[in-house]
Design brief:
This protein is α/β, with parallel strands linked by helices and 332 residues long. It is 33% helix and 19% strand. Strand 12, helix 10 and strand 13 form a beta-alpha-beta unit.
Length: 332
């Protein structure tokens, strides 16, 4: 939820070499996807510089060797308790899933769990992060950032952004995570989806506000003005963190996107293309948000492909590409 504009601009500063400084999530809940080597070739064809894996898929990791794509590697939620239980448990996960690839792949982040706060694994996340960090430090891999990915369900209140607080269910676990992230000033990964707010309440959430296309300020919060829901959501997380005394932890957007089908006029290729092009532009602009202008925000579009084994409807239609690798709509 970010910059409002009606024209597309290019930001050469955001391109390192021939890589575009934005990521796409490589989801695999499907039975008709191309082989991993072809998928990685597709990332390279479109100069997508970053990739998020939700778990240590060996075929994907093998294909990523030597690709020069920055990888965010997820720890499956069900693996969190064992990693949290001991440094030996963390070492075992590391030895199996990460260490064999560290010489050939650039790992930017390890995300301990996805949307696991609140939930049954929530209290184990911070201990697991600490144990994994210890293992990485022992192997001189401090360049890999350990974090977790949460949804906006961690917020109890999110409007206006300055009123945001963490929910009672999430607060204990999220504060433990933030205390860990504070040590290195590492970002919290957050899945940010203006689509869901718009689709659930189109009477009160303007479409142009959700799509980054509003030309006027839609929300005024004190001395901050918001032209788009993305910025308001990210700033809501910043406000909630600051109320817990945390001021040096940023936000990395681990997922954002718009489905191209599944809910009638709410989900068309045109709307999905509009959202993702503007999301891409906003991330590459390095504009930050009204609350933290110029703050660096990592960004990942969800997702690379439509995934046919997800529930029928919207959930199957987030992909930038069909499984035959043809674009659903243009973004890159």
């Amino acid at each position: 939820m970010v910059l409002a504009t009606t024209t597309m601009m290019l930001f050469p500063i955001a391109i390192a070499g021939d890589k575009i400084d934005i990521g796409v999530c490589y989801g695999m809940v499907a039975d008709n996807l191309p082989p991993a080597a072809e998928v990685i070739a597709l990332y390279k064809k479109y100069s997508i510089g970053k990739l998020r894996l939700f778990d240590p898929n060996r075929d994907a990791l093998q294909a990523l060797k030597g690709s020069d794509i920055d990888v965010t590697l997820g720890v499956k939620n069900e693996d969190i308790p064992n990693i949290a239980a001991s440094v030996d448990g963390a070492r075992s996960w590391f030895t199996t899933n990460l260490q064999p690839y560290t010489n050939d792949i650039t790992f930017a982040f390890v995300s301990v769990g996805n949307e696991a706060i609140p939930g049954e694994f929530a209290d184990s996340i911070a201990p697991a992060m600490k144990n994994l960090q210890s293992v990485l430090s022992d192997d001189n891999l401090n360049g890999i950032t350990v974090t977790t990915s949460v949804s906006t369900a961690v917020l109890g209140t999110s409007f206006p952004p300055s009123a945001s607080v963490f929910s009672d269910d999430a607060k204990g676990a999220i504060v433990d995570v933030l205390n860990f992230l504070t040590i290195k000033g590492s970002p919290l990964m957050v899945n940010v989806y203006p689509y869901f707010a718009y689709a659930s309440d189109p009477v009160h959430v303007r479409q142009d506000y959700a799509l980054f296309t509003a030309t006027d300020a839609v929300v005024v919060d004190g001395n901050l003005t918001y032209h788009n829901l993305f910025d308001a959501t990210v700033d809501a997380v910043y406000w909630a963190m600051e109320k817990e005394g945390v001021h040096n932890v940023g936000v990395a957007v681990s997922e954002s996107g718009w489905p191209s089908a599944g809910k009638g006029n709410f989900t068309t290729p045109k709307l999905a293309s509009t959202y993702n092009k503007h999301f891409k532009q906003h991330i590459l602009s390095k504009a930050g948000t009204p609350k933290r202008p110029g703050a660096h925000i990592e960004g990942f579009i969800f997702a690379m492909f439509n995934e046919d084994l997800k529930p029928a409807g919207v959930e199957q239609n987030w992909g930038l590409f069909y499984p035959n690798m043809k674009p659903v709509y243009p973004v890159f």
